[in-house]
Amino acid sequence: MEELAGERLILREPGSGTRAIFEAGLHSRNYTLNHFHGVVTISDFSTIKSLTADGLGVSFLYAPVVRKELKAGTLARFDLADLPMCGAFYFVCLKDNLFAENWLSWLS
């Protein structure tokens, strides 16, 4: 965490799932966003990925959001020691939706 504290964070807006998960992880280790060099709030995943790829900060994003960039090598993944993070992801659709079966196979 000490090494990361010198970085600028590029995060989603307050109330977003990724930010809530990240902040909960920080709080579990007695950290807050105030421990970081700076925090930039962006509401668009594409913009966050672009700014991060340009070296303007680090971010915390869902793995499926950055799958293509990780494979291409434009972004790199790192894990925070002793700070496991996870969160629930809910997918909803109308009852008896024609595409529900396809979506269920995509989620598994």
Describe this structure in words.
- This protein is 40% helix and 9% strand.
- The protein is globular, with a radius of gyration of 16 Å.
- It has helices at residues 2-5, 17-28, 45-53, 63-72, 100-107, and strands at 8-11, 38-41, 58-59.
- It contains 5 helices and 3 strands; from the N terminus they run αβαβαβαα.
- It is mainly α.
- The N and C termini lie far apart (32 Å).
- The mean pLDDT is 86.
- A 3-stranded parallel sheet has the order 2-1-3, covered by helices on one side.
Summarize the entry for a quick read.
The protein is mostly helical and 108 residues long.
What keyword list fits this structure?
5 helices; globular; 108 residues; mainly alpha; three-stranded parallel β-sheet
| Shape annotation | globular
How does the major sheet shape up? 3 strands, parallel
Instruction: Please estimate the helix content.
Output: 25-40%
Q: Which ranges are low-confidence, i.e. pLDDT below 50, for 5 or more consecutive residues? A: none
Strand content: 5-15%
Query: Whole-number radius of gyration?
Result: 16 Å
How many beta-strand segments? 3
* Count of discrete alpha- or pi-helical segments spanning 4 or more residues: 5
Order of helices and strands: HEHEHEHH
